[in-house]
Specification:
2 copies of one chain form a homodimer.
Chain A (H helix, E strand, L loop, with lengths): L6 E4 L1 H9 L5 H14 L3 E6 L19 H8 L7 E7 L18 E6 L4 H13 L3 E6 L7 H14 L4 E5 L7 H14 L4 E5 L7 H10 L4 E4 L13 H7 L8 H17 L6 H8 L5 H7 L8 H9 L1 H8 L1
Parallel strand pairs in A: 1-2, 1-8, 2-3, 3-4, 4-5, 5-6, 6-7, 7-8
Helix pairs in contact in A: 2-3, 2-9, 4-5, 6-7, 10-11, 10-12
Chain lengths: 322, 322
C-alpha cells in the first residue's frame, strides 16, 4: 500500500506509559526518538501533557506531563523531520500548562475525548490551535457511541475545529473489519474537509489488521507503537505497519534495532500483548480496566474460564449497567 | 458472523507438533479432544499419518503417525459429534498405513500439497476417498504459486477429486486482506462444486484477520488452533475464531479452560507466537525455516536488525534463487 497522504503517528511513550505511569528514563525515550526519526515516522507523541496540580510528579514519571524542558532533553540538537507532540485529556490540563507553540519544542497536540464531551474537546483543541499548534481530536470508546451522537459530534468538529484529523479510537479492541469500514465511511461523510485517523487496540490480534482496513477505506493518519506496546493488549505494531506501507520514506531497520535494544528487555519487566483476559474484554466490548485489575491479582490472573464466566453472568452485566 | 455452512477445523496437535516433533502425551491430547468436543468444534486433526519406515518412532512422538490405536486411546468411550482425522504428506505415507475407514476411528484425511504436486495429491486423496474417508486438499505456500498453475490445479481437483474442501494455506504468513479476497475468489471460481477453506499463519498478526476476510468472501472451512499454537508464529487462535462466529453451537469456555490448564504451562516450555524473526520472514514472503534456525542459535536469536539486513542483502537473495 503506497499513498503519499498517509502519515504514521507514533504513540509508543504516551500509550506505553499507561502501563507504568510514564516511568521511562530520558535515555530510553531518546533512543526511541532517534529510532523513529531514522525510520521516517511522521509524528511522535512523547507523552501526555497534564497539570502537576492533578498528578503528583513523585508518583508519575516525566511523560505524564511532557514538560517542554523534558522534551528538549530528548531532542537535544538532533535535526529531524518528525513532528513532536502530546496528548491532552479534557479537565486534566490547564491553560497555563500550554505555552505558545513558538516557545515550545512541540508541534502538535491531540485532544482525547468521549463522544459526549466533543463540545469540550473542540474548545480545548481550538485553544491549542490558537496558540499555534497543529491539532487533532481522538474519539475514544468508539464502539460504545451511538451513531446519532457520533454523527452530530463529527459535524460539529467539521464546522468548528480546524483540526488536521479526527481519529477513530477502538479503546476496547472490539471492532471487526466491517465495523472499521463503516466507521471510516461515517467519519469521511461527516468530515469532508478533515482527514480520518485510526488508533486500534490489539485485544483480538486485530490492531494491525483493522489499521489496514481503515487505510483501505481512506484513513490517512495511522497510530502505531513500537513492538505494539500499550496498555493491556497494546496497539498496532509500528514494525508491521511500516513494512505494509510501501512508501520508501520509511525504514524498518531502526525500529527492529530499538525493539532488540530496548523493548525486548522492557517486556520482561512490564506486560502487554495478547493475554486472554484482554481478549475477553475485547470480545465483550468492555473497558480493559477489569482485566488489568485481574492481572494484578496473583491468584486469579490466569483463571481465564472463571473470569469469562463472571463477565458473562447476568449479575455482572447488571452491575455494569446500573 | 453466523453462517450455518461454516465448519471449524482444529489442527492444534498436528500443527503444534511441528514445534516439538509431536511429543505430546496421550493425557494432554485427550484434554484437548475433550475441550474441543465440548466447544462444538466440527473437525479435529489429531496429527499426521506417516510411515514409520520413514520417521523413526523414537525421535518422533505418537502424533507424527497418529496410529488408529493411539487415536482410540484418546477417544475412549466418549461420544462426540466432532469428526477426527489426520493430515498426510505426499510421499511420506504408504497405502498400507491407511486402513479402510470402517476399521478406523478416523473420519477424514487431509492431503497437504504444493501446487506443483496437485496430480499426486489428487491420487492420494482419491485413494483415501475410496477407503471411505472424507477428504480435503490443502495447498501450501500459496503466496509463491503463479496464477496460471494454481487455476489449472484447482480445475483439475474440481474435475477429478471428490474432496469436501480445498484450503488456501498461507505457509509464509505473508498475505494481506486484499490478497486473501483475491485467492478466495480464484478458488471459488475454479471449484464451483467444492467448499473453500483457509489455514492462516500468524507471522504478521494477521492469521485471525485473514480468516475473517476469507469468511467474508465465502470460505466455509476454517483452520484454527488453541491459543494459536503452531510452528513459528503459530496459527489463527481458536478462541478468537469461536467468539467471532456467532453460531450458538460453539462454546468458548472449554477452550479458555484448556488454555489455562494446558497451553499456558506448555508455552513456558516450547515457543510460538509473534516473534520478530517470523515477522521478518512473513513480510519477505519466505519460508520460516531460516527464522526457526535463528531462534535455536542462542547468540543470534534476538539479533533482529542483523537478521533483517542479512535477509535483504542481494547476496542472500541470490543464494535463495540459485
Amino acid at each position: 500500500m503506497y499513498r503519499k497522504e498517509i502519515k504514521v503517528v507514533d504513540c509508543t511513550i504516551r500509550d506505553g506509559g499507561l502501563i507504568n505511569k510514564w516511568q521511562f528514563s530520558h535515555e530510553m525515550v531518546r533512543k526511541v526518538f532517534l529510532a523513529l526519526s531514522a525510520a521516517g515516522v511522521d509524528y511522535m507523541e512523547v507523552g501526555y501533557r497534564a497539570s502537576q496540580k492533578l498528578f503528583p510528579p513523585g508518583e508519575f514519571g516525566p511523560w505524564r506531563f511532557s514538560m517542554d524542558e523534558d522534551v528538549m532533553k530528548i531532542v537535544q540538537d538532533t535535526q529531524t523531520q518528525m513532528k513532536l507532540g502530546v496528548m491532552v485529556d479534557i479537565g486534566r490540563v490547564e491553560e497555563d500548562d500550554i505555552k505558545p507553540c513558538e516557545e515550545s519544542p512541540l508541534d502538535f497536540i491531540r485532544v482525547a475525548t468521549y463522544v459526549k464531551d466533543i463540545d469540550k474537546a473542540i474548545d480545548l483543541a481550538n485553544h491549542c490551535n490558537q496558540k499555534g499548534y497543529e491539532t487533532f481530536i481522538n474519539i475514544m470508546a468508539i464502539s460504545t457511541a451511538t451513531n446519532f451522537e457520533l454523527e452530530e459530534g463529527l459535524r460539529q468538529i467539521e464546522a468548528e475545529a480546524p483540526v488536521t484529523a479526527v481519529n477513530i479510537v477502538d479503546s476496547f479492541g472490539s471492532l471487526y473489519s466491517e465495523e472499521v469500514h463503516y466507521l471510516v465511511k461515517t467519519f469521511k461523510d461527516n468530515l469532508p474537509t478533515r482527514e480520518v485517523g485510526i488508533h486500534a487496540h490489539n485485544n483480538q490480534q486485530l490492531a494491525f489488521a483493522n489499521t489496514i482496513e481503515a487505510i483501505r477505506k481512506g484513513a490517512n493518519y495511522l497510530d502505531a507503537t513500537v513492538y505494539g506496546i500499550g496498555r493491556g493488549p497494546g496497539n498496532c505494531p509500528m514494525e508491521l505497519l511500516l513494512s505494509f506501507l510501501k512508501n520508501p520514506k520509511y525504514s524498518l531497520e531502526p525500529v527492529l534495532q530499538v525493539i532488540e535494544d530496548v523493548f525486548l528487555p522492557l517486556r520482561e519487566k512490564i506486560e502487554w500483548g495478547y493475554i486472554i483476559p484482554y481478549m475477553i474484554t475485547g470480545i465483550l466490548n468492555e473497558h480493559p480496566r477489569i482485566a488489568i485489575a485481574l492481572r494484578q491479582d496473583s491468584e486469579k490472573r490466569d483463571k481465564y474460564a472463571e473470569f469469562y464466566r463472571t463477565m458473562t453472568t447476568p449479575e455482572c452485566y447488571e452491575a455494569k449497567v446500573e
